[in-house]
Structure formats: structure tokens, C-alpha cells
Amino acid sequence: MKYVISLALGLLNGSLLFFAGLYFNPFTGQASVSPLAVTTDRVVDLSFSAVPGEAILYTYHGEAIIRPHPEWVAELWEPAVYNTNVFVTMLQDRLGGAAGIGIKMQSHSEDTALISGQVLANSIWHIYLPGQGTMMIDQSENYWAYIRDVTIPARMNSGDNWLGTFHRVMTSGPGSVGTARVSGSSGDFAGITTESVESLTVNNYSPATGPVSMEGNLTIAMPQPHVAPRE
Amino acid sequence: MIKTFLIATILSIIGTGALTWYVPAVDLHRERSLISVQPNGGNVETFHINLPSDRVMVGLPNSDISIPAALEWPGQEVVGDMQAEIFKIRDREGMVIGVGSRIASAAEATGPFIEWGLHFPARGSAYARMEITPTADGFRNGLMLSGTGDFSGLSGTVHEEFVSDADDIQSRIVLQTTLVGSVGELE
């Protein structure tokens, strides 16, 4: 009997050790500095509140802790879109003024690999900036650092909200240096193909209601207008 | 007994690792893609949206008919006459397979536009720009601008048609994509 108990304890211990190794793995961090920080292109910075309750609209299957917003919004409960969420927000420029509207559609990615610290989501942003034009950003995002550094500590800290400073670049592809792909459609963006990066800054997370203070940022590199060489 | 504990611990670490490696953490539900091939080339896929049931959002400036009713859409001073709609997208057999956004503006300073952004989990996304003026038959043609996943590297046309039922209670938006792969370089 004591060997059976020893075997069971050993199996439990091994699993716990493995998951502890995953959780504390120092090689699965994400950058906090955008790969576009060194670009020579003009950069457009757009920020937005990433708190669902402060968005114009946020919906998903509706069965987790975060409440869809506003009330009576249709939920995405059908099997094919069950792991999808839609987020509509005002985008602000660097000075905090209204810059436009962003619609983000995001779903879980089958490329998620816990063993390498990749909790991936595929998303697109459909963006309209009045007086400038429209574009789509497609990207994969890695939420492992967010889960490890914010949501798990928040849940383990049963009595209170998580308070702190979390800032990471969430975009992990498809660009080779971890950038998203931007396709311009109309206005100043017509025909352009460029790169962008989305980052997330969290200061307060409630295990009961989700993010309390969370800001997102989209950095879009704008290619310089092509100037023909002088003859 | 300690030896049993240690062996079980090592086996458990290896076993849990193997399980994490081989068992997918995310296994999305995917409906069968209903694609037909045209005789002269190109893959045709037809999607539709049942109205009003598949509307997730209708954002119109200074409007009382926003969906959902409590939607706080930015005023005209911010987004002009731009209107945005979000829908659930169904395949030919009526199964919901994705979500899509349609944005349009007739008075945008840089020029009018009508666009679709389509997102199909486990498949990919597509981005299309439509012509402003519909055809005499009442439908609208457009061009696929970019795509990801199954739509990556494809180009082609998108056809949008509003189909109203006789009793006008339920109508549909039909979207049809005709896409071809890019021709590779000849060796």
C-alpha cells in the first residue's frame, strides 16, 4: 500500500514540477519594447481603453467573468465562433483626441503551445481614421505573459485586485520580427502594405470582473512616400 | 519507497511534457468549407447573413436605430457619416462560421468607401473593398485586398447582394467570393 501511495505522490509531484517549470520558465518572456521602436518610417500611434466595459461594444460567448457590453448585445455562442470575441473601440491619437474607430475580431489559435509559452490568438483590426482612410491589420498575439503575470496572480490573490504595471508587446506575427501585417484600403492608406505592433498596459485586474485598468496601443509604421531620384 | 517516489516523479514529468506537446491546447470547431471550383478556374464560396437575426451591431451617427439599443455610437463630429455593422456570417448551409464587419462612408474627405472585414476562426480572414455604385441588377462588386490563413495569397472578387424576402420580414445579405491563387514564377 505504501508503494501505491508513494507512486501517486510521485506522479502528482512530477506534474506539479512540470507546470511550475512552465510557469517560471525564464525563456518564455515577451518583449516590452516594440520592434518598430527603431523604424525610420513615420509612426502612427493609436491608443484605446482595453477594458471591455469602456468599449463601444464587446461580445463573446458570454459565459466567462467579463460581461458583454452594452446590455443585450448578441453573444457569439455558435460552435464555430464560440472562441471568438468582437471588440469595437474609439481610437485616440497621441494627444488623447479621437482619431477613429477600430473593430477587432479575435479568436483562439490552434497554434497555441503551452510548452513553449505560446497562448496564441489570431485577430484582425478593421480601422477607420476620418480624414485619413481605412486599413486592416492582421496579427497573431501571444497572451502567455498576460496570463502568467496578471490573471494567475490576480486569481491567487483571492482577497483583492491585482495592482501593478504590466506592459508587453502582444503581437507575435506574422512578420518575421514579430510584427503584424497592415493592408491599406482607402484614403492616404490606399494600396500600402506595412507593419504594426499592438501592446497592452495593465494596471488593475479584478479576478471577479476582469480588467479594471488596461490600455492598448497600436503602433503603425507608415512607409515614407517614394521620392524619385534626381537625374 | 523513496525510489518509487522518485521514479514516479520523473515519469510524471516526462508524461506531462509529452501530453502537453502532443495534445492540442486549442481545438476549434470548424464547419466543412463549402467551396466549389469554377470550370475556368477560381474557387467560389457563398456566405450569407440573415437579417435581422445575425446583426451584432449597427452603428449610425445620430441615430435612434442603433443595435444593440444601448450602443453609444460616437457623434457625427468624430466619425462623420461613417456607419459600421457587425454580423455573424453563415455558410451556404446556414451554419454560422465567422463574424464580419462592414463599414461605409459616403462623405469621407478622402473619398467614399464600402468595405468588408471577414474573420473565420480556424480558417483565416479576408479584407475586401466594394465598389460604391451598385450594378443595374442591384448587387455590388468588390475586390479582395488581402487575406490570412485559407485566404492567404489569394486574389479575386467579392460580390454583395441584398436579397429581400417577399414578406419583407426576413432578408439576407449574400456574399460570394471568387478567388484564385497567385501565379508563381515560371521556372
Description of the structure:
The complex is a heterodimer of chains A (231) and B (187). Chain A is an alpha+beta fold and 231 residues long. Chain A has two helices and eleven strands. In chain A, strands 1, 2, 3, 4, 5, 6, 7, 8, 9, 10 and 11 form an eleven-stranded antiparallel β-sheet that branches. Chain A is globular and about 75 Å long. Helix content of chain B is 13%, strand content 43%. Chain B contains two helices and ten strands; from the N terminus they run H-E-E-E-H-E-E-E-E-E-E-E. The interface between A and B is large, with 70 and 71 residues.
Number of DSSP strand runs of chain B:
10
Q: Largest beta sheet of chain B, briefly? A: 10 strands, antiparallel
Mean pLDDT of chain B: 89
Q: Which protein chains are joined by the largest interface, and how many residues does each one contribute?
A: A-B, 70 and 71 residues
Described by strand count, sense and barrel closure, the largest sheet of chain A is: 11 strands, antiparallel
Distance between the termini of chain A: 91 Å
Structural class of chain A: alpha+beta
Low-confidence stretches of chain B: none
> What string gives the helices and strands of chain B in order?
HEEEHEEEEEEE
Rg of chain A is 21 Å
Keywords for this entry:
heterodimer; A: 231 residues; eleven-stranded antiparallel sheet; 2 helices; 16% helix; B: 187 residues; mainly beta; 13% helix; 43% strand; elongated
